[in-house]
What does this fold into?
Amino acid sequence: MSFQFSLAAVLRIRLSLEEQEERKLIRIVQEIALSRQHLDAVDAQEEEVVRRRHEKLAIATRATGLHESYGQIEELKQTRGELEELRRGLVQLRAEQMKVYATAHRNRRMLTDLYDERRAIYDANLARLEQLAIDDTFGARHNRR
It folds into this structure.
């Protein structure tokens, strides 16, 4: 007689759902890190453009070169704004996904606890039956003498 858990299929499904939600959460966290890297790259580009503009100002240069650097800075500021908006959306999505993952984890944990409880009861009953069989065998041998 082996251990049977009537909700084993449900437990497998809930475990699968929990893992799926965890993978989604990991992807969102990775996207947040990537957006941070893009923001850092935009900051570095902007610093480079400003540095070059200051170098151009130190020497005689055409107005078109300066105008171009202002255009680049504006473009980088717009890109930064878009990246920051994306990052805010990802942070909000992460918060929502954390709630979904926590719910999936809680649901799976509830079934796992039930499984563990029933398994412990089964193991205790099995040990009791084995002990009774050993006691009966010992008693039968002892009575033969």
